[in-house]
Amino acid sequence: MSLDLINTASTLVSALAVVASLVFVALQLKANTKAQRASSAWQAENAWAQLNFEVARDPQIAVILDHILSSVTGSAPPEGPGARQTKFMIRSLLQHVQSQFFLFREGSLSEESWRHQRSWAVKFVKFPIVEAFLSEEIEQDILSADFRSEVLGSLESH
Fold it and tell me: How many domains, the chain?
């Protein structure tokens, strides 16, 4: 066996090893991305479950949330401490959805999960009491411009 043949064979083996390493890294990256997306979806749903659990534990919060979700056109927001609690409940719910929007935008949450959350948010901001507080949230820059465009922009198209 000549030195040229040995050199060529070793170069070929080295090249195949590099290709195999790159394939392995690509498969690991794909598996890691899938695991990250699954974890993000679980965390997003778990955040809602935790919020619902806390609402169920506190009758006063449940009453406030019921007032928000069952309000009809012209329903006046509560006054005094109830108004502040209502405002912060609305803010909390919108921030929950906004955090999921950020996960979706960065590729960690599936489109199906985001569509579901976006649909809920679009319906939520249509409640009169939420609309009454929404302009203040926008004025205070509580919600990001991208999120507002994604959720409120869809209201204008309906």
Answer: 1
